[in-house]
Amino acid sequence: MKNRVVLKTNIMISLIIATGFLLISAIYYRISYNVALEHIEQVSDLTSENIYQQILVILDKPVDVSAIMANNTLLRGFLLQESDRLSREEHTETLQKYLQGYQSAYGYNEVFLVSFQTGHFHSYDGEDQFLSQEDLKKKLYFQDLSNTDKDYIMYVESDESAEAGNRTTLYVISKIPDSDGTLLGVVGIGVPVDQFQTLIQEYNKEFGVNVSLLDSEGIIQISSDYMRHEKVNVLEASGRNGSIWQSVLDWEEDGAGGFWELGTTGQKQTYMVVRYLPDIEWHLVVEQNMDDLLSGLRSQMAVIMAVFFIILLLVLIVVIGTVQSFDRQIVAITAAHEQERQAIFIKATNQLFEDIYEVDITNNRPANLASEAYFARMGVPEGMSFGESLPIIAKKRFREEFRQGYLDAFSPENVLKAFQNGEGSIRYECMATNDEKNYYWIRVIGELIVSEKDGTLHMLVYRENIEKEKQQEYRLLTKSLTDEMTGVRNKAAFQEVSAKLDDDINEGKAVFGVAMFDINYLKWVNDNYGHDAGDQLIIGACRFICSIFKRSPVYRIGGDEFSAILMGEDLEAYPALLEEFRAVIERKEGEEHPETKVSVAQGIAVYDSTRDRCFTDVFRRADEAMYRNKAEMKARHRELGLGYMNVR
User: Fold this and answer.
1) Are 543 and 484 spatial neighbours (Cβ–Cβ below 8 Å)?
2) Is 326 helix (H, G, I), strand (E, B) or coil?
3) Which is nearest to 355 in space by CA: 469, 433, 439?
4) 3-class DSSP assignment, residue 356
5) Please, are residues 586 and 541 in contact by the beta-carbon 8 Å criterion?
6) Which of 34, 40, 100, 388 is deepest in the core (most CB within 10 A)?
7) At 449, which helix (H) or strand (E)?
8) How far is the C-alpha of 545 from the C-alpha of 563, rounded, in Å?
């Protein structure tokens, strides 16, 4: 009889613990899986945007350089008179030195000039050749330039010869027209694509994503593992979904497209973000695989299950010994065992989440002894309802700005409403504390469950530490809102703050000013001293603006345009700051060497509720003031005989 009681007790305890543990484990796995999906999509989208913008910056520079060469009067005059000067050796040497200068300055693979009049192909390395008219028409750049209104084209070629070592080059070919529009020839620049692979490998290492550039047929042009000459086709890769990849290759829209590739079990396995680069007809694809995350989840579940069975074995040993030794105290032993079981359950589940408790929403109270103990630790008086306890918990555990959101999300009324709307869980992200001093990010999750015993609605509440996840999101967001060259905020950040200021205007609490800045004679510096000198001019001007308006956020909103949002002390003292700005600019314009001069036009407008209906109105007034100042500066420069100051 005694053995039968012990056996029944052991079976009952084992079933209860196993059922509760498996339920929590299943919920944990499902929640973690969904969170992982969302995290992968966010990281992939942000990474795709960052890489896309950096590739555009890389492509823009050779386009600018080739445009400068194509508009150079030296080359145009050379092509017009080439047939008369072909026999002059110094004529060819002068041109070769000109081409060599650009190749040396930028490290290009190729710099060349082609005359459509004579068919002469001039290269920076002196390996010139003559092309017949038929040969010219067979050239890819001749055909493409003849069929487009654009001033330039791009295309990619791979040299698979042993000497070149499978070198892949991006060519930018620009037209050189005569004054009547006749095409005299072309100037070409060959850019090494190694920098694209370096960029891709950096993101692969830092964020664990696979990045590749594909042509319209699915051939990998550049990735962290392959180059164009290897001719790897993603449509033919084993184990990959060809229809999904075809959808990726068909994407030619301006924005980004997101695609999930399913695994053999039908689960989402790989997330892909695609962007189209029309100039070179390539697709930028960013992939992130779920395998590592799922493997980590399964490993964690295996460890937890092993711990659970060890704990269960220990519990059974304790129960058997207790029942055999104290048969007359079964009631007391049962009560003690219940407390021990709850402690073991909490210990096992706390490995997954923080502060797990259960609430009876229907009756507005804690659902068990463990939950009552948790509320007591939070300073909730005994017998107080769940709804009345929430403000006490919010004040003790959460940062002030998140408390009302927590109360709105988890009030009994809102939980019932969410359940009636068919929602199975409630989530809220906020900053919490354990010592009322140091705060960290958590995700509070409430799973809604209907009790099979009495049909009441229960909520199982978990708290998950997401501090590392938030830090990575912040790092990516900061990178996407920062101008890479100057380190100040970029145009995307400027659009965000303008939207916020529009909200402040609508709410009647806007107090701000807008300062606009435009760098003078940047094109003159680029043309005479090169784009590196132009970049240094932009960086120096930015530092100067930040040094004057040091308490205002500064944004780079164009190539040579900056803006500052004036608030607080800078807004109050802006007339004095403006005078200081003008005095320093006047001094910098008097520098002895032209390349060290800094000249910046400025304009400031302060929000006026009687005339400004939105942020754009203030911005437009500041922009107009800046252009008036720019015109005044140019007039003064002409009076002083500074002719080069007249260019932008």
Assistant:
1) no
2) coil
3) 433
4) strand
5) no
6) 40
7) strand 439-450
8) 9
In this structure, what are the phi and psi dihedrals at residue 244, rounded to the nearest 5 degrees?
A: -65, -45
Inter-residue long-range contacts of 83-89, CB under 8 Å, 24+ positions, other chains counted: 83/117, 83/118, 86/118, 86/120
Question: What Rg value do the Cα atoms of the chain yield, rounded?
Answer: 35
pLDDT one-digit tens code per residue, 414-451: 999 999 999 989 999 999 888 878 888 989 999 999 88
* Residue 251 CB partners (closer than 8 Å, separation 6+): 257, 274, 276, 283
Side chain identity at residue 521, one-letter code: Y
Residue position matching structure tokens 């009994």: 412
Token output for 60? 């823009």
Contacts of residue 437, Cβ cutoff 8 Å, sequence gap at least 6: none
**240 contacts 234 by C-beta, under 8 angstroms:** yes
Helix or strand holding residue 267 (H, E): none
- What CA–CA distance (Å, rounded) separates 253 from 612? 36
3-state secondary structure (DSSP) of residue 20: helix
Tokens 């339920």 appear where? 23
22: its two tokens = 């498996």
Tokens matching residue 366: 């804690």
Which two tokens mark 579? 């005078």
| Closest of 451, 421, 269, 422 to residue 360, by C-alpha | 451
Residue 271, judged by CB atoms within 10 A of its CB (0-12, 13-18, 19+), counts as buried
Nearest C-alpha neighbor of 557 from the set 632, 619, 628, 638: 619
110 residue type, one letter:
E
Three-state DSSP at 508 gives: coil
Could you tell me if residue 646 is left (phi over 0), alpha (psi between -120 and 50 degrees) or otherwise beta?
A: alpha
The mean per-residue pLDDT over the stretch 501-517 comes to 95
Other CB atoms within 10 A of residue 225 CB: 13
pLDDT, tens digit, 9 for 90 and up, residues 606-638: 999 999 999 999 999 999 999 999 999 888 878
- Report how far apart, in Å, the C-alpha atoms of 383 and of each of 1, 373, 387, 389, 392 are: 41, 12, 12, 10, 14
By DSSP bridging, strand 425-433 and strand 439-450 are: antiparallel
Is the CB of residue 44 less than 8 Å from the CB of residue 209?
A: yes
Q: Provide φ and ψ at 490, rounded to 5°.
A: -105, -170
Contact in structure between 305 and 18 (CB atoms under 8 Å): no
Short-list 497, 525, 516, CA closest to 624: 516
Q: Which two tokens stand for residue 33?
A: 């899986």
Give the CA diameter of the chain: 122
